[in-house]
Structure prediction request, 254 residues.
Amino acid sequence: MVTKHTSIATAAIASLCVISTPANAGEHANRWSGIHAGAFGAWAKMHSKSIDITGEEFGGSTAGATERTDANGYILGGTLGYRFQHDKWVFGPEFELGYINGNDLKVVNGDDGVLVDYDGIYGSLTGVAGYAITNNTLLFVKGGLAFAKIVNAGGEFDGVGNEDSGGRLGFDGNESGIGDRVRYGFTVGAGVELALSTSWSIKAEYAFAKFKNETYFDPDGENDEPFKFEDELHAVKIGLNYRFTSGHHRVPLK
Prediction:
């Protein structure tokens, strides 16, 4: 699955590498250390699995029956980080914060459904490690904590506006599980960054995030039909960074 969703990232990273070594690279040597801030946009693919723990829905009588749905969306956000550099090795912390949007509703068997909806905060706190293959080109990997606001629903689908027993989002109030909260998990990624000048750089990056599973109950409060939700996210990011630096950083890498 990861291979499928990394194809776009691979193409973007390869295109940056092609243009990453100008003829006058030695004259425009770039050091990567210091504070950097930037902005990014991303295409995102969301995968969500709903598990009917009691087996009352999703075809009935099968405990643990599952339904899946996928959503396409986007992320817009900002980046703030600090990098240390030793020779060609670069490492440091990085924080991302932004807005994520993407949703999908899948109806099966006529009256069963599963919904995933990202609409709100997104962020990550990661450690980044990289290697400067030229003065202007940095390859990097990263990993750490990710979080996002996710709405999940699964179970009997009555239709929006026709919910029974105090249901919402189109789902029945006593035969579904519905939840809405900020979810936390882990993220890993890799990419390439190309220096345009001493301070400015562009990057292409692929990131994967898997969030901690959550179990939600029926909205009527009886808590007799739990549904567990498993969610993960693939994102291909393009960003622009500004590095706060001074003249002494314009030193060629060894």
About this structure: Confidence is low (pLDDT under 50) at residues 12-30, 248-254.
